[in-house]
Design goal:
Layout lengths: L1 H15 L1 H10 L5 H11 L4 E5 L5 H8 L4 E6 L2 H14 L3 E5 L12 E7 L9 H11 E12 L25 E3 L9 E3 L3 H10 L3 E8 L21 E7 L2
Parallel strand pairs: 1-2, 1-4, 2-3, 4-5
Antiparallel strand pairs: 5-9, 6-7, 8-9
Helix pairs in contact: 1-5, 2-4, 6-7
Amino acid sequence: MGNRSAWEAASQKYVNEHEELLDQARDSSSLVACELELLGPLLASTPNVVHLQSGHGLDDIALVAAGARSVVGVDFSSVATKAAQRRADELGVHCRYVVAELPGAPLRDGCADLVYTGKGALIWLPDLNVWAADVARLLTSGGHLFVHEAHPMVPLWAWDEDVPRIRPDRGYFERSHVNDTFPANGAVEWQATLAEIITAVLGAGLELRHVAEHPEPFYRWGDLDAAAWRGQLPNTFTLLARKP
């Protein structure tokens, strides 16, 4: 309940910045180069996409622009989903949104050719094995899971601007920590190692096709130029898996 309240409050940003986000969606893609490289061949087949934990929805508009036939976004914030639906409707993009807590998306089995997720999604999930099983349920045979997400090491990085440092109050093998930045308000973020994420995907019967680690974060906070973001440390990863 505390996490939902924190995320609803944080999602008000998507309402307040509607025009700015609308312009971003209209004028540029929110998908970064490493995403487009892997997604390009998949989107060429005009897949039906399910975006789990869809947030502001800009990625959904970008996915349709890049070739997706349609996108269904699922998020537990009614504020975020309403804001995302409004933008999609104003742009005439084939996206629709469902309010639901995950895992356990209220969608039919095999409805997705592609499940897309990440960019601050997995930290809200305490049991990745259940999440991965739900992803596998949603995918049609031959469908793909694509993740572009903050690297599991990111909670350890301090935001000092002179040199990279590790926070002494965090540990890679901890199960959770309290968020003291965005969205704050005491939200609990769950932690999993990269190995645990991969093992959950494999345990759901999906075939791993690609894993890569990247130095660039998926989001930067204002004018902050943290030394941890300058190429020495992992800040994001991408994962592609296929359902046999």
